Each structure stands twice: as C-alpha cells, then as structure tokens.
C-alpha cells in the first residue's frame, strides 16, 4: 500500500433514489424510502417485478461522440458532468496522460443491441441507429475517457456484480505504480431485457421487494444507476484503505455455500488496509436477498467479524445495480462516513421483514438510520460477490 | 516506462498453434491469423467433456492458452491471480440470447450465465481450483495493452510473484460483422508475467495517439514485433501510442 491512502476528492451518484448525493441521502438515511418501480413484460412470467429504475431522461450524446450514444453512456456522461470542475482542473494540472479511467459495467449499452435485434427480427435494419461502440464492454471506459479528455490508462472491468468494486483495486494500484496522478473510478449499469430475463431464467428474481437475510427471502430486484469517484493522494476526505479479492472456484452461478471465498475477500481487504475486524464499524453487505448469497455471506461475516458489527444491505432501496453495485454502495458508504460528525458514523438501515432465518449465525442488522459514535475515525467494509464466485471487498475510512 | 518481465507465453489461432508457426508468421507481411476460419477449436484435453460442450469458442481458446502457458512456465494454475482480456467477450452467446429475446422466446439459464464477460475467468478458476482474484476486462481496440496494465496492477495487489494474463478475441458474428476490424484479431495468448527483476524484461509506456487513423491491432502487432526479435517499437491505435522495450522475449532462438 502507498504511504497515504488515496482520498475521494469528488463523487457523483445516480440511482432510483435520486440524481445527487443529497437527494439519495435523503431517501437512504434521513427519511428512508426505497424507490422501486413495478415492471412487467418479462418473457417467462406474467407478474410485474419491482426494479430500481432511474426515472430521469438524458439527452442524446452529441457528435463527435455520438457513436457511443446509449442510455448507459448517457448516465456516465451525467456523472462526469457532476464532477466537471474537479476533473477539468486536475487534467489541466497533471496533464491528460496522468489521469486514468477505471470503470465497471455488466450491461454496457446492450439495450441498443436489443432494440436493433428486435428491428431485425421484425424485418427491419439491424444497423439503423446502432453502433457497436454502444454495446461493447470497453465502450463505457472509452467513452468516459474521450468525453472528459483523460488519456491515462483506461479499462472497463466486467465481472458481473463485483465489476465496480474491483475498479477501486486497479485504481489505487495505478496510483501506487505512478501510472497516474489521479484516477476516475466507478461503474454504470442500466436495466435491460437480457439481464431481467436472464436472472429470471435462473429463478433469482423476487416478486416483491428483496428481503435480505430474512427467512422469507426470495430473490433480487434488478436496479440501475451509477457512481463515479475522483481518487488521488490527498490530506483529507474519505479514503480507500484497502481492497481484497478472491474467487470461490465453485460453480458458475452459485456461490460456495461455506462462504470461504467471501471470507478470504474480506480478510484480504482488512490485511491490505492494515486493520483488524474490530476496526470495522459497519459492513455494507452484498445482501442480494437470494437464498444462497445471504446464507453464505452470513456464515462468512460471522466467521470474520463475529455477530456484533453493525451491518446492512442497501439493495432494498435501489435494487441490485449489478455491474454498478460496487460503486453505488461505495458511494453510500462515502456519505455514511463524511456526513456524520467527527469520530462518528451514520449507520445505513437494513430494510426487511424482521424475520430472522433460524439457520443463520448472529448478525447485527441495523434497525434504523442513526449516528453511532466510534472510538476513533470510523472504517467501513463493503462487499460485492459475483457470479462464479468472483469476490471483492473494499475498506474505506476518513481523514479529517 | 512501466517495467515488468515475462516468464513464458503460449498463443493459439485457427491457423497458428506451435511456436514455430508463430515465428514463421512473424516473418510474413500479413497479420492475419485466421487462414482456416472454419471454426477450428483448440484441443482442451484437461477439461471435462460435459463442460466443454457448454463452452463458447472464445472460452475454449482462453482456457487453452491459460492452462497451456502455466504448464509451459512450470506454474500450478491455482497459484496466481489472473486477468482475462477480450474486446468482444462472449459476443456469440450474447447474440444468440438477443435473437431469442427478439423473438420473445425463452432464454436458457445456462446461456445467460455463460454470456457474462467473466465466463472464461470463472471456468478457469473452477477448473484450476484457483482462489485468487481474477479480472475480466475490455478496452476497445486497446484491450491487449490496457489489460496488460491491469494484470500488473493485480499482481501488485495480490503480492504474488506472477500474474496470468490472457487475451483473446474471435470474429464478430452476424449481424455485428460490419464492425469487424481489419485484419480481425482472431487469436488468444496467455502470458505469465512477473516484476521487473525477472529474466525476460519488458517495459511498456503509453501516450495519447499521434494519429487519428486506426492502424494497428495491438495484440497481433505486439506478437509480430516481439517474435521478429525487435527490442524497441511503438504500436499506434486510434487512441494511444503504445511503446514497448523488450530485453529478451521467451521462445526466440537468439
């Protein structure tokens, strides 16, 4: 790890709760109100399902970047615009080649390809209003790099639900390796027929709001949105203290039920941060609400932390934002750290039906949004565990 | 420049499989590697046949070079973190699913889980009992060199001596073929990379592109230059100038 941990100099956020950190904070913490919209039209079921959609519409991406125009990149452009002053000032200060872009997505602009394919199936022209740059995974990073004018290392990580957690790992190492002086990290995902119907085919989508760690839990809600972070060396702010990664090496679409991979991921993050489990004041759980994830995450968290560390899953608020979840939930953690008093932490509430799963080990799920005093500057840990057991945990702190 | 080293490499394409074939290719004018584009597939002996039937051609290519380069380097495949880089990823499987959705048909759960960009990474980890972190990445035309930087970053994060870096792409299927690059990069390469103290030293640097003309396929261009024995060269894409310095490239008979 570097001498000092990189700080978050700026951040932007877009979810079903709102377009700005203030709006999101209001519905996440001040007046907790999950925002899920009923969505029908799935291929294999008649009932509509709750999804965490972003209602706001964004205008098309103009020339000369119009080949990248898709909803996913319009979200990205919005998030970059919200950080425009910081980004422009730093690119001016360091030079374009010293600012990198490391972002995650699982969807990219697949919606554009879906529409193009429907056109073709109905006898129309696939290529009308479609460019491959919209669909390819690397398109998100490339578009952002072009849009903000940053020509340092640029990569899109696509590892399903851990995509935009791993971006923190790569981003901080690029800083350590002196490849960059600053790096924009984050993630964006947008709801698509492919992901809705794909997860439904795996029977992982719940008919009602997800109910993580409840004995009645029955699956996920798909969500969308994104977050971007401007990371660089700095004196004060929310810091990235450590990142850990691991693989379950178990099955392609189920986690290791023993939670060994999850445990390793958290332990590695703690070691990277130079922290012990007792130093963590809050865990933002992956907590998707599937029977399998929650059972194994419960085991793993209990093994590493015991049963008393305050924890919650914030997915009931915005849905599971898949490739953007790592970044969106890191944004929630950033706000929890910086919006509390010094040496205090805003605990994010866990929304569920309150019915403990009797097979689970003890877990301290946060009952209501409240500030809790900490013995020292707080640290939090955020989990993201993906398909094929592709795991990542991020430890964040704050220097005032 | 960012310094690192390469223990070994293994590359596969429909028409080039042995080191000798790749060396011969490097002396030719053309960068094409798809002379037998009849769906030739690598021979995945170590992989269970039921699993093999489910794998896309891209995943087979990536697994073949991943396992093969570890064997060649004398490294147990469970021992190191990995980065799998592909510009197009599981595009064949994805197009099949899009067609199914377009017809309002059913999509298979297996099809969906094998359409994610990290499919090959997942199968590699499962087959190798590998618990290290693994990335799957893409960066458009610059995927090969950008992925290589991510591999160096992951090695540093994992604190291991080596990292496995795998890059591969297949031809774009219809109806995406109008967007195919020229020449297409239909090949896969696995590399075991180490830090700057290793025997076969390399260095990489990058700058904003000096030209807007898209001239090179970085993966094939790199192979072509390295196998010719060139020790210092620049590969220019639409977005970047990639500079390489090579002390010694494994497999070249001096």
Describe what this molecule looks like in 3D.
The complex is a heterodimer of chains A (400) and B (254). Chain A has 400 residues and is α/β, with parallel strands linked by helices. Chain A has helices spanning 21-30, 71-82, 84-94, 110-121, 132-135, 139-148, 163-176, 193-201, 260-273, 291-305, 315-318, 325-338, and strands at residues 7-14, 37-39, 49-51, 99-104, 154-157, 182-189, 225-232, 237-247, 280-284, 310-312, 344-347, 364-365, 370-373, 379-386, 390-399. Chain A has a 6-stranded mixed beta sheet with strand order 8-15-14-9-10-12. Chain A has a 5-stranded mixed beta sheet with strand order 1-7-6-4-5, with helices on both faces. Chain A has a two-stranded antiparallel sheet with strand order 2-3. In chain A, helix 10 links the parallel strand 9 and strand 10 (310-312). In chain A, helix 2 packs parallel to helix 6 (139-148) and helix 7 (163-176) packs across helix 12. Chain A is globular. Chain B contains 8 helices and 8 strands. In chain B, helix 1 packs across helix 8 and helix 3 packs across helix 6 (119-128). Chain B has helices at 19-26, 49-54, 57-73, 91-102, 109-113, 119-128, 143-158, 218-228, and strands at residues 2-12, 82-85, 134-138, 162-169, 187-194, 201-208, 232-236, 240-246. Chain B is α+β, with helices and mostly antiparallel strands and 254 residues long. Chains A and B meet through helix 4, helix 5, helix 6, strand 5 and helix 7 of A and helix 4, helix 5, helix 6, strand 3 and helix 7 of B.
């Amino acid at each position: 790890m570097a001498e000092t941990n990189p700080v978050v100099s700026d951040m932007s956020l877009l979810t079903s709760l709102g377009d700005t950190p203030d709006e999101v904070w209001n519905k996440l913490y001040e007046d907790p109100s999950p925002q899920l919209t009923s969505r029908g039209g799935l291929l294999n079921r008649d009932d509509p399902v709750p999804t965490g959609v972003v209602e706001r519409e964004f205008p098309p991406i103009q020339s000369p970047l119009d080949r990248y125009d898709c909803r996913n990149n319009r979200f990205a452009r919005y998030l970059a615009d919200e950080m425009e002053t910081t980004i422009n000032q730093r690119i001016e200060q360091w030079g374009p080649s010293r600012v990198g872009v490391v972002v995650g997505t699982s969807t990219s602009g697949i919606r554009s390809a879906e529409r193009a394919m429907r056109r073709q199936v109905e006898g129309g022209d696939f290529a009308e209003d479609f460019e491959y740059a919209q669909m390819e995974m690397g398109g998100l990073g490339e578009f952002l790099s072009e849009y903000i004018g940053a020509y340092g290392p640029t990569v899109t990580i696509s590892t399903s639900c851990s995509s935009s957690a791993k971006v923190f790992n790569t981003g901080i190492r690029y800083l350590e390796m002196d490849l960059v002086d600053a790096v924009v990290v984050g993630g964006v995902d947008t709801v698509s027929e492919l992901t809705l119907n794909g997860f439904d085919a795996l029977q992982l989508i719940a008919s009602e709001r997800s109910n993580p760690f409840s004995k009645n839990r029955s699956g996920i809600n798909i969500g969308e949105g994104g977050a971007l972070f401007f990371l660089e060396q700095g004196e004060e702010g929310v810091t990235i203290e450590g990142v850990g990664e691991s693989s379950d090496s178990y099955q392609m679409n189920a986690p290791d039920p023993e939670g060994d991979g999850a445990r390793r991921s958290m332990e590695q993050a703690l070691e990277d941060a130079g922290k012990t489990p007792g130093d963590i004041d809050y865990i933002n759980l992956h907590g998707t609400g599937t029977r399998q994830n929650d059972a194994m995450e419960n085991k793993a968290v209990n093994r590493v932390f015991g049963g008393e560390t305050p924890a919650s899953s914030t997915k009931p608020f915005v849905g599971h934002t898949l490739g953007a979840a790592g970044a969106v939930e890191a944004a929630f953690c950033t706000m929890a750290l910086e919006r509390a008093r010094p040496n205090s932490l805003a605990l994010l509430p866990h929304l569920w039906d309150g019915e403990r799963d009797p097979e689970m080990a003890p877990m301290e799920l946060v009952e209501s949004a409240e500030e809790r005093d900490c013995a020292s500057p707080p640290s939090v840990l955020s989990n993201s565990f993906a398909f094929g057991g592709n795991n990542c945990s991020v430890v964040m702190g704050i220097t005032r | 420049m960012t310094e690192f080293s390469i223990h070994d490499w293994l590359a596969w394409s429909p028409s080039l499989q042995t080191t000798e074939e790749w060396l011969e290719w490097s002396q030719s004018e053309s960068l094409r590697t798809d002379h037998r584009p009849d769906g030739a597939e690598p021979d995945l002996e170590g992989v269970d046949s039921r699993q093999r039937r489910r794998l896309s051609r891209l995943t087979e290519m990536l697994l073949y070079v991943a396992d093969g380069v570890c064997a060649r380097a004398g490294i147990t495949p469970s021992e190191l973190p990995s980065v799998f880089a592909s510009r197009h990823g599981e595009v064949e499987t994805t197009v099949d699913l899009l067609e199914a959705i377009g017809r309002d048909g059913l999509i298979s759960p297996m099809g969906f889980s094998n359409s994610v960009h990290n499919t090959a990474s997942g199968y590699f980890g499962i087959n190798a009992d590998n618990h290290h972190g693994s990335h799957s990445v893409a960066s458009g035309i610059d995927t090969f060199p950008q992925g290589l930087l991510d591999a160096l970053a992951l090695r540093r994060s994992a604190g291991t001596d080596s990292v496995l870096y795998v890059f591969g792409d297949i031809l774009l299927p219809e109806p995406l073929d109008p967007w195919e690059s020229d020449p297409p990069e239909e090949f896969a390469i696995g590399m075991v990379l180490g830090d700057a103290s290793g025997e076969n030293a390399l260095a990489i640097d990058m700058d904003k592109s000096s030209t807007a003309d898209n001239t090179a396929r970085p993966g094939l261009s790199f192979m072509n230059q390295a196998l010719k024995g060139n020790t210092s060269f620049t590969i220019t894409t639409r977005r970047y100038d990639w500079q390489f310095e090579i002390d010694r490239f494994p497999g070249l008979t001096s």
